[in-house]
Amino acid sequence: xxxxxxxxxxxxxxxxxxxxxxxxxxxxxxxxxxxxxxxxxxxxxxxxxxxxxxxxxxxxxxxxxxxxxxxxxxxxxxxxxxxxxxxxxxxxxxxxxxxxxxxxxxxxxxxxxxxxxxxxxxxxxxxxxxxxxxxxxxxxxxxxxxxxxxxxxxxxxxxxxxxxxxxxxxxxxxxxxxxxxxxxxxxxxxxxxxxxxxxxxxxxxxxxxxxxxxxxxxxxxxxxxxxxxxxxxxxxxxxxxxxxxxxxxxxxxxxxxxxxxxxxxxxxxxxxxxxxxxxxxxxxxxxxxxxxxxxxxxxxxxxxxxxxxxxxxxxxxxxxxxxxxxxxxxxxxxxxxxxxxxxxxxxxxxxxxxxxxxxxxxxxxxxxxxxxxxxxxxxxxxxxxxxxxxxxxxxxxxxxxxxxxxxxxxxxxxxxxxxxxxxxxxxxxxxxxxxxxxxxxxxxxxxxxxxxxxxxxxxxxxxxxxxxxxxxxxxxxxxxxxxxxxxxxxxxxxxxxxxxxxxxxxxxxxxxxxxxxxxxxxxxxxxxxxxxxxxxxxxxxxxxxxxxxxxxxxxxxxxxxxxxxxxxxxxxxxxxxxxxxxxxxxxxxxxxxxxxxxxxxxxxxxxxxxxxxxxxxxxxxxxxxxxxxxxxxxxxxxxxxxxxxxxxxxxxxxxxxxxxxxxxxxxxxxxxxxxxxxxxxxxxxxxxxxxxxxxxxxxx
Length: 700
What we know:
Blueprint: H1 3-18, H2 30-37, H3 39-48, H4 84-117, H5 124-137, H6 151-163, E1 176-178, E2 182-183, E3 186-192, E4 201-206, E5 212-216, E6 239-245, E7 248-255, E8 275-276, E9 278-285, E10 290-295, E11 303-304, H7 320-329, H8 338-341, H9 368-373, E12 391-392, H10 395-400, H11 402-407, E13 409-411, E14 424-425, H12 428-438, H13 449-467, H14 471-474, H15 502-512, E15 523-524, E16 544-552, E17 562-570, E18 583-593, H16 609-613, E19 617-621, E20 624-627, E21 630-636, E22 654-662, E23 666-677, E24 684-686, E25 691-696
Parallel strand pairs: 10-12
Antiparallel strand pairs: 1-6, 2-3, 3-4, 4-5, 6-7, 7-9, 8-11, 9-10, 13-14, 13-15, 16-17, 17-22, 18-21, 18-23, 19-20, 20-21, 23-24, 23-25
């Protein structure tokens, strides 16, 4: 069955079952759907999926062959509008997710079918070897993030394997901050007005001294509207929480927003009201540049920050209650393209709306307003230039936006104004934040028709944002905070530095829209998944103390004459995360008679790299099978790390070992190959060569 026809069948089925304003919770309908479609279709999907099936289609998921839908045309929004084209897009995303789940579920099904159907095709020694290997080592042979094919829990398991334990989302705790709202240089909050009968809710305006300036009934504009789009531009009293664990930081944003661009004096907007509309979490490792995005469900109108939010995979593989709650909490379709906005190689995108002391204050970070109103340095300034690593984690997310991730580029400002300090990209940082920062319109010198439509749409969006900005923020002289970036002076608006010239801006904007050439210094925004031991990619971890030992056969064992133990030590230190769990080892094994001369083996005698990678792997028993002319043992974790258990934290080398059944008079040749489970579209990154070792089993 051709892959194209599978997509043709899947999408109508998904549309019939899932279309509408709400949809079934994941896990309740998908399993039945997968079984209903049948294992034969699943096997066909497995046979036709993969990189070869995706040639010529940039929206094809390289791992499964399923086709991701194209996002609706227009500016990228933080929250998708509730209109017909976005409802259809959400439906197609659900169909795509179901297709991926079908193919991934088929992996286990087809492995089982192959094992049962073709057991007689294996040589007796292969079956005996695999059965003994599994019995002796099977508890520690497993790949992380394979306990579930549910989009949410699998995503959480992948993130936990890279970043370590994920904290619960908490927007009410002591470390959380309220996002301030400023209007005409004053701080504004919604409170009962004691000067009126009945103390109605109104907007209280106070200056930096704390002096009451006025009360207002409505609030149509503010000094620093949100740049996200399709949210309440001047929303107030959203909450942000930042937690740091070593190199990893977690940001949880509880955004208050409604379907209206302005706000009214309603209880929803009060600080004391824990109800909010948009839940988002970002995890980031500042050393490795790995980033992950979790979004609350989009068919849910309201969240409540008086309750903590369970991580997407629960707190562990065994946290069944937490995993079920997570499936009901997070978006399984990844409707929002978070990486389009959070693309500056850092954990957070800083703009005036967030209320930090270093941006959006005329008198600078030391001024009275910054001291009274801002969050200070709650999000500290970090230096990460365009050459630093940056990679999105989460195969569900990256399969949906693979085309966008591959096309994204960093930009060097040909005029030298902006990118000496900042990372600008061909995504939202360049196309929305940059023009807003310098108060200029997006521009392309010689646009295609499609680019012309995109630029027009973005100009309209920026115009809409600007219409919610106060005249105070736009005016000349004291108080002006827009534009909020100045060449060479950055956020220091107190200087008399000139704004960027229109000529310089047009050169830069042309680059930011991907329309430039060599003068733009384009580089891929996202970097490759590092293989274990790839020093150039920042991971110098490799196995140490690799050795073999020939031991007596354990009592009661049959089918072998000796036990060959292959041992090594290894610490997955990439990113300095003590519980990191995204590296496993493959071991390819060949046997030969011991040469009479006793000469050492040639390099050609060992299993090849393709065999160690398992490119033609056929399972015999569990994670042990044949690969070319070798036997292959896949996915070895450290000794004691049983299947679907959490790794114990470690900063010292862990013990690894695999016990092999061995026969007297035979030479065993081993290639030990570490690999990183990348949890993105690249799937797996293997070490360059691995370690070669051999043992002669002499029993006389």
